[in-house]
Amino acid sequence: MNDFPNYRGDLFYECQECGAHYDGDRLYYTCPKCKGVFLLKDKNFTQLEEIPGKKWREIFDARLKVKDNALRGIFRYYELIAPVFEREDIVYLGEGNTPIIEVNSKLRKYIGQNFFYKNDGQNPSASFKDRGMACAFSFLKYLIRKFNWSEILTICASTGDTSASAAMYAAYVNGAIKSVVLLPQGKVTPQQLAQPLGSGALVIELPGVFDDCMKVVEFLADNYRVALLNSKNAWRILGQESYAYEIAQWFDWELENKVVFVPIGNAGNITAVVNGFLKLYALGIIKKLPKVIGVQSEHADPVFRYYSLPKEKRVYTPVKVSPSVAQAAMIGNPVSFPRVQSIVEEYERKGGDFYVVQVEEQEIIEGMLIANKHGHIACTQGGECLAGLIRAKELNLLESKEEAILDATAHMLKFIGFQKMYFENNFPPEYKIKPKPEFQNYPLQVLDMETKKQLSWEEFVQKAGEKIVEILGIIPRKEA
């Protein structure tokens, strides 16, 4: 099983607006005819359908033991992701195969539902973006090798995680690839800003929000030879499909009574998750499509508004965003929404259920705090998913026998500033968050420096210890 796969696909871009097709060996982001977004498809996919689902399960399960870096991460599912690369093209930094952690009995009882967190914050740059970036940079290496390019500039707009991931992969690949990231000034946490700076990327800040930065990136990609690395890049969507494959494999390819919650943001991840499940279903690898529920904050909810209406009355309208603790969700006009529209239609035709729920900012931050208070490492997007689970239960979208898988898209340490703001009750009014005492936590000071200076070492230890005993009510050790 250490042999690299023999199968090679023939990938092409398919416009989700007009249906036009373009060669997959080019840097396309929007359709030259209508400016619609693309999905990548494989002309040879019918060859994969000739292999029984049981055989595919055996192949992917056997690759769990493989030590070849080219097949250890997202490319364990090589034939389903980007089967045009050679081993030398593939970039692997430890992405993928992130743990799925079941909640403890206390949190299960508190929520009234059994569920799991998939900790994508344990990817190399501490977010799920690495899945798509590993595929996108493998594609760039493939193009550089095939066309003998001497240099290519990568560029992305970001609320933090995309820039961190893009800069890290560019730094690792090095050579012909250079990295530039555009960030909305003051809208990125210090931890997320530190990452691309530390990776050596050129960081450019623009006034406004993510949507403003994205428009500038789109202008550059439409008019200059640059590699756009946002989820508008269809190669990134392919890499992110691995999230769906890993969920299916973890549950032994049995997704009956499973519900997958995904924060929508720019809609790239939910596109990838739904498309990934569709591929598994088409190949007979899974027999049942799981229920998928997207989650949006009321501060940026265009997709929720669209799906909240009856089908005959649905009209998509971008919204003006308000500040959100789930910063990756603070997008009023998701680039991948046309992909969502077309893929969800197919998902529902194949028997899958799809919903979108809306949650409040207060619920998002408290969802993160509740999860982490019970031993998880959920970011604010993970908190958004937990808030979405609670809302879905209120709307009777879940049955008691169903189990939910929640997406913690990044590591909680990236959003530690929001936790601090909650504990100290200093959120600006536009967040509409009023902390509750039961979720706040503070360090307790025992003695002060002036008192310490006046005591000998032995006196300090005894006095500090006595204070701690008083606080904790510790029972003295019994004499032997």
From TrEMBL:
Any GO BP annotation: threonine biosynthetic process
Pathway the protein acts in: Amino-acid biosynthesis; L-threonine biosynthesis; L-threonine from L-aspartate: step 5/5
Which cofactor names does the annotation list? pyridoxal 5'-phosphate
Q: Which reactions fall under this protein's catalytic activity? A: O-phospho-L-homoserine + H2O = L-threonine + phosphate
Tell me the superkingdom of the source.
Answer: Bacteria
Matching Pfam families: PALP
Task: Report keywords, A-Z.
Answer: Amino-acid biosynthesis, Pyridoxal phosphate, Threonine biosynthesis
Positions modified as N6-(pyridoxal phosphate)lysine? 129
Chain ranges of the Tryptophan synthase beta chain-like PALP domain? 93-401
Output the Gene Ontology terms for molecular function: pyridoxal phosphate binding; threonine synthase activity
EC assignment: 4.2.3.1
Query: Which PROSITE patterns does its entry note?
Result: DEHYDRATASE_SER_THR
Amino-acid biosynthesis among the record's keywords? yes
* Family listed: Belongs to the threonine synthase family.
Task: Tell me what this protein is called.
Answer: Threonine synthase
Species annotation: Desulfonauticus submarinus
Give the source lineage, highest ranks first.
Bacteria, Pseudomonadati, Thermodesulfobacteriota, Desulfovibrionia, Desulfovibrionales
